[in-house]
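User: hey, got a sec? need L-serine 3-dehydrogenase, putative folded
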Amino acid sequence: MTPIAFITGATSGIGLATAHRFSKEKFKLILCGRRQDRLKALQEELSAHTEVTTLSFDVRDKPAVQQAIESLPQDFQDISILINNAGNAHGLDFIQDGDTADWDAMIDINVKGLLYVSQPIIQTMIKNKNGHIINIGSTAGKEVYPKGNVYCASKHAVDAINQGMRMDLCEHGIRVGAINPGLVETEFSKVRFKGDDERADQVYKRFKALQPEDIADIICFTVTRPYHVNIADLVVMPTAQASSTMIKKS
Ligand code: NDP
Ligand code: 8X3
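Assistant: Yep! Here you go:
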């Protein structure tokens, strides 16, 4: 049966590249994000390759998440792949200077939003005895870096949720795994630095960062393994990066 893939954060970066990659595999696509103009354009583009529907909601808004998933057309309801990708960092500050609104955003989006999206889809997967969940974590979920405090905490939470989901869903035959990238050149830093594009661009200067397509390739490899193979936890960094704080720049 054609896989039905639900991708959060499909309007940009890793999620967008994954949508493109999956369209080449002819997976049916449910593309999510808040920016409706981008979703509409993407649907138009990818519909040349496969069946696509879109859902616009904020992952923080629990009733909106529920409503959006319930609104799916009948032939998109049996979701078999969930890419929990929507997420971001807000600010890069010492803990004593952190903006509590930034803390709320990161915990609400990266942790609570991921849970809100996952639960109804997990119920469908259990019913169908078929499913694969990929949680996009980060190297920030494996180590902590100065001023990364709350973003790192949110990604450590994703790491714990990934392990917990795998344990709870094992008896239902559902695959669960995390992909944890290091630096990927996306809109991530533009969001983190609140539109300060010059500062954001500096993050990816003087070394070759991962590209969103690199992660999309890995996601695609992961979901196309035979069903008895579950890539449980994968860390991927640019060759020029050895840890969150050690990056070889020219
Ligand atoms: P982008 O900023 O390019 O993409 C983020 C995506 O998340 C967008 O599609 C955005 O869509 C969506 N999103 C953000 N907030 C919300 C929200 N409240 N509700 C619904 N959707 C939301 O960043 P990346 O592609 O880099 O980030 C994707 C994931 O990868 C994140 O979880 C990030 O933490 C993780 N990651 C990124 C790394 C990097 O270096 N770039 C490294 C490691 C992990 P919209 O604004 O339309 O809602
Ligand atoms: C994003 C990578 O190093 O900017 O998760 O935190 S990093």
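Quick note: Strands lie at 4-7, 28-33, 52-56, 81-84, 132-136, 175-181, 233-236. Let me know if you need anything else on L-serine 3-dehydrogenase, putative.
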